[in-house]
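Why do we bother with a discrete structure alphabet at all? Because it lets us treat a fold like text: something you can write down, compare, and reason about line by line. To make this less abstract, here is a complete entry for Major facilitator superfamily (MFS) profile domain-containing protein. Read it the way you would read a sentence in a foreign language you are learning: slowly, and without expecting to understand everything at once.
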Amino acid sequence: MGLDFLADGGADFEHAISVTGFGKFHYMLLAICGLIYMDTAIGVTIISFVLPAAQCDLQMDSTAKGWLTASPMLGMVIGSYIWGCLADTKGRKVVLIATLLMDGVVGVISSFVQHYWAFLIFRFFNGFAVTGAMGICFPYLGEFQPTKYREKILCWMEMFWTIGVIVLPLIAWLIVPLDFTYATDSFYFKSWNLFVALCALPSLTLSLWLFAFPESPKFLLECGENDKALEVFKWIYSQNTGNDPETYPVKSLQEKPNPKDKSTRSLRLHKRKDLKVLCSEVWELTKSLCKPPYLRNTALACAIQFGLTSSYYTLMVWFPELFTRFEEFEIEHPGESTSVCIVSLPDNNTDLMDYGCGTTIGSGVYLHTVYIGLACIPGSIILPLFIHKVGAKVFLIVSLMISGAVTIGFYYVIDSNQNLILSCIFEALTSLGISLVYCVIVDMFPTNLRVMAAALSLTMGRLGALVGNLIFGYLIDLACVVPVAIFALFLFMCGLLSILLPRTGKDTLD
């Protein structure tokens, strides 16, 4: 099995994780992290089917819909950095469990609320929680991988996101059209409420399953907790090989030259003194990200996340709404061609106060959204197979530049079929870009800053999504060419900035 000890008396992380083998444990870890990522895909885009389904009950016009789609994004802006700070000080696993539990509980409660503003507040907290799971699952998965498998394993996460994009409209198609209503004088519970509740259950299930997995050994080593890290390596070795943990050939691990203060992991956040210590630690880590040698990478990651995420999440959330408008136009004006901007114009003959009451989501809308998810499958398979040969950076640049061109194309579509084709290409490429940015960040920063860096870039990304949804909701009925042009410009700029990213995927994690 190679040397059990290095010259300084202990094995380093790369040797220790390689000796555990690659097998059952790693596949199970990929499964749970992938399902968490799939769950976040559902959590982020669920609102896209709530908009047309609940517009009458919650009395929403386009501006109100814009605020509702922006609400979880605002939660993500605030939550990303808070969860990242906690994950880099308290541990990956415990914070991941907390985010999933919160997302599940808040999601179930939100399904019972009766008023627009109450629902908007609960979706804020859903966004606050789900962004933590999204930001932590990639570093958590990556920190268990040997170098030669890490990039490929991380790239397989894109497939789980794709499955989430496919599964969500299928669940919506099954539940939302049901003629199901429970109502009293002061309470109602309809099919869209049931849909919201069911989509919250996977978070609760995954949080419980995660208790069976260990803390990241890379994080434990960073904290100087070598004995605990060694126990994790032994357990992984036993899971992969079926051998007794005590037969694991590595008997000691290298001491970290400057280990993180592990006392921060035992801080009690309800105590003012402990909270002050934690805030001080977080401030020091934040300052490290904003100084050389990490400042350049931090700025690039944040800028790319802002432009890419604002475009992706805004258009992804509004696709079902646009599909619904196209379908309504083509029913009312058979044989006529139209465009995104024309179907976005409100009908002057319509009573604006009816909030779309009586409108139902056509089966074509669900089917079109499934097609969008299916369009992502080829890229999800090609990416992990060719990532080592082509490189994450090249994939990212190409996907962003083509996405920008496709976004311009939305302005020129004349029917729902052209809109669908461009939507499929847009989703396939931009979702690849989102996953690639996460993969690159895992390699760009050291362990003690990794989740914090991911969280900071996620914060900027969610800020972009927040701004994007507000812009789209406000301008879609007034001057829709403006948001289309803005998002196309963002994607082109992100593609150019990606050229400046460092090469990743070849070196051992720092």
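What the structure line is telling us, in plain words: The longest strand covers residues 181-183. Strands lie at 181-183, 188-190.
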